[in-house]
Design a protein that fits this description.
22 helices, 440 residues, single chain, mainly alpha, 0% strand, 77% helix
């Protein structure tokens, strides 16, 4: 609300300008008039007009000043626990300034404060009738509609009214209020306008790019709309700018794996070199993406940074070892994996990576022994089924590579009956090598 003194100054300025306009018009008329005598007569005739203009301007200024005085008295009455006196003061204030939308909006808020909801509604509606784009009146009426729409009775008509009012409010040139955007999104969802809600929350995220809750909300809405890739981009953009949001990064990690969206991870996180606060977790995630995209050299750089920042994260060191292996640096991979196993002998992920590295180095006998060691540790339930199949397939291939058909058959026997194509192909290869294809 504009302070009363400032309003009085505006009114006085308006009155002065109005009087100046009258004087200018008269002066122009006199300039083009016919004679000096006529000019003198006309000057005398306009003096009453100028006097009347002065009186009218002064009366309006006094009325406006009095109305704001009464508004102030209403505030004092409310604070003093005299709501009825406040109502009377507000009624008189509105009578004195019926063309002031600011005053009517202020009065509406005060009446609402003391529970006179319907009267407050009428005053706000009057303010809007005086000025159809009056922000405070639009906001007041929009909030009341939202309360009815989202209250216990869930008024469906109020939902549409609230949407219209908030949309009008947000079209104003003044900066959008986050609370208004949040409420409009909720109302859009009430009428199942998911695209509309997404558009509104996008505005909210643009207005508050560091707001985790707004970003989460946008991502959730995009996921509901089956826009998984866009949701991933939104969250990746946030974690790139806010690397310490580990919980969100964990969810992004899961989503990226589910979508196999490693190119998007690389694209969105590729700019983290510009971020001084980038964490080991972020570098590790980017490194894995580049490793999966067949760029082990870049992955090594990223993962070495991650390990340097978080050396205690064993998973990061094991991932670096995998990158070393993919980059043909198997000696570095072996050294790193043995260091992990020296400290944590039960680390099956590191042991499995060690077996693959030994296989890459063509140390077949030791690789087979290591694979069997890992296989003996894998859970015998459904959770370990995929791992058992993968290890068994590698064992069969290695046994065949060294010509040990009996070993290959023994490894094949470790696999549960399956229709998995690679396992069936290995069975055929074993049978062919053993010369017993016809017996299968």
């Amino acid at each position: 609300m504009t302070p009363a003194p400032e309003r009085r100054e505006r009114s006085l300025a308006g009155a002065t300008l109005g009087r100046a306009a009258v004087a200018l018009a008269v002066g122009f008329a006199l300039t083009v008039g016919p004679s000096s005598a006529a000019k003198t007569a006309e000057v005398a005739s306009v003096k009453p007009i100028l006097a009347a203009a002065d009186d009218l301007a002064e009366a309006r200024v006094l009325a406006r000043a009095e109305s704001y005085t009464k508004l102030a008295r209403a505030v004092i009455a409310i604070r003093g626990g005299e709501p009825e006196r406040a109502v009377e003061e507000l009624k008189r204030a509105c009578e004195l300034s019926p063309d002031s939308p600011d005053l009517f909006s202020e009065a509406a808020n005060l009446l609402f404060e003391i529970g006179r909801v319907s009267e407050a509604q009428r005053l706000a509606e009057h303010a809007l009738s005086v000025d159809a784009v009056h922000g405070p009146a639009l906001q007041f009426l929009a909030e009341r509609a939202a309360e009815r729409a989202l209250g216990s009775e869930r008024d469906p008509e109020a939902v549409q009214i609230g949407i219209q009012l908030y949309e009008r409010l947000l079209e104003l040139p003044t900066p959008a209020a986050p609370a208004a955007l949040e409420m409009l999104a909720r109302l859009k969802l009430q009428v199942r306008d998911l695209p509309g809600a997404i558009a509104v929350v996008r505005r909210l995220v643009a207005l508050r790019p560091g707001d985790l809750m707004a970003t989460r909300t946008l991502a959730q809405l995009l996921l509901r709309d089956r826009q998984e890739t866009d949701a991933l981009r939104v969250m990746l953009g946030f974690v790139a700018a806010h690397p310490d949001e580990i919980e969100l990064l964990a969810f992004v990690d899961q989503l990226a794996r589910a979508l196999n969206a490693w190119p998007i991870v690389d694209e969105e996180l590729g700019r983290i070199e510009e971020i001084s606060l980038a964490t080991g977790s972020l570098w590790r995630f980017l490194g894995e993406a580049r490793l999966r995209l067949g760029r082990p050299g870049e992955a090594v750089v990223d993962l070495e940074r991650a390990v340097a920042m978080e050396p205690e994260v064993t998973a990061g060191r094991a991932l670096l070892a995998r990158a070393y292996r993919a980059d043909q640096r198997t000696s570095d991979a072996m050294a790193l994996l043995r260091a992990i196993l020296d400290v944590d002998p039960a680390n099956d992920d590191a042991r499995f990576e060690l077996a693959q590295t030994l296989e890459a180095r063509r140390e077949v006998d030791v690789a087979i022994e290591t694979y069997r060691d890992v296989l003996g540790r894998v859970a015998k339930d459904s959770r370990g089924a995929e791992a058992r199949v993968g290890i068994g397939q590698r064992l069969v291939g290695l046994e065949l590579s060294r010509g040990d058909i009996a070993g290959a058959r023994a490894a094949l026997g470790l696999l549960e009956p399956t229709d998995e194509p690679e396992t069936l192909e290995l069975g055929v290869r074993v049978a062919i090598e053993d010369g017993k294809l016809d017996a299968m």
